[in-house]
Amino acid sequence: MDELAEPGADAVKPASYVERLFGILRLFSEGSETLGVKEISERLALPASSVHRILEPLVRLGLLERAPLRRYRVGTELFRIAARIENRFELITIAKPLIAEIAAETQETCLLALLTPSRSRIVLSYKIDTNLSHRFKFDLLTNITPVWGSLGRSILAWLKPADVRRALAEAEPSPATGAPVPDWNSFQDDLKLIRERGVAISRGQRAAPNAVGVSASFFDASGQVRGGLGVVAPDIRMSPQRVASIETLVKLHSRQLSRLLGHYSGRTPAPRLAAKPALVRTATEAALNTHTPTQIKAAKCPPTQNLNLRSGSKRKSPTSISTDRKKRTVLRAR
């Protein structure tokens, strides 16, 4: 269908409905800003009636919009879908250096998984394979269940219960061992532990019975989980000490990726402002406890305002009394 890109080229008639639909969308992506039924019909060698039948659902879904003079243009929904796809590829570009750092330090296979819009599947979007002899094969750009493996579970731990239930309902037995899909209660316990640790660790769930995975999730600016970073290696190279070191490394890089995506809640919380006044009050109470009862009374009732007097009564200070006496003495002298 390359001929569609050239207006004057001989048209190749699409065979199936899907090919016709794709051909129309492709025309809008490569041609002018607006197109009419006649232009589309000539370019795709389709009857005008067929073009009309395809355009109507595209308009209804928001993929195309009606323009003046009985023409059509790209709709907002198609722009939204394109922007989300572009954003996903941009995320991969941002994540690549971090994945390279993990792979270089561990010398093991490092993977990036992204959550699909359905929120019940993930896509292995990028990987760097180990150069060591014993390694596992991973197919990229395929939708897989997140129920099996550390990558998927690190993501599932932060999804809503409805999304988790749907993922469990769609899951099949473990591709590595044939183990049945876990029940809801035990799976919730596993996800709770992942949230507490900030990392998921799996053994023999997806790649192979002897595969060990260590993964952590990352988040975008809105606080939504977007995917996970993980390391997978054979158990013979994954001692408890090495798993612990990889766990720290993966968590560190997943947090860094979250920050690059605009998510800052992973930072160490600043001390609350209420802590400082509490210390001041404690110090004041300690100081008051060192005073004699007379000193405490003076602090509470300054000479110019004795709160023990009746309302409306005033007690003059010694300075005021001395001033009044001087005034009376001067008047008498006159």
At a glance:
The protein is an alpha+beta fold and 334 residues long. The chain has eleven helices and nine strands.
CATH class category of the largest domain: Alpha Beta
| Category by helix and strand content | alpha+beta
Question: Looking at the structure, what is the overall shape?
Answer: elongated
Sequence of strands across the biggest β-sheet: 6-5-4-9-8-7
Describe the structure.
The protein has 334 residues and is an alpha+beta fold. It has three domains: 73 residues, Winged helix-like DNA-binding domain superfamily/Winged helix DNA-binding domain (Arc Repressor Mutant, subunit A); 178 residues, GAF domain (Beta-Lactamase); 59 residues, no CATH class. The chain is built from eleven helices and nine strands. The chain has a six-stranded antiparallel sheet with strand order 6-5-4-9-8-7, with helices on both faces. It has a three-stranded antiparallel sheet with strand order 1-3-2. Strand 7 and strand 8 form a beta hairpin. Helix 2 packs across helix 3 and helix 4 runs antiparallel to helix 8. The N terminus is likely disordered.
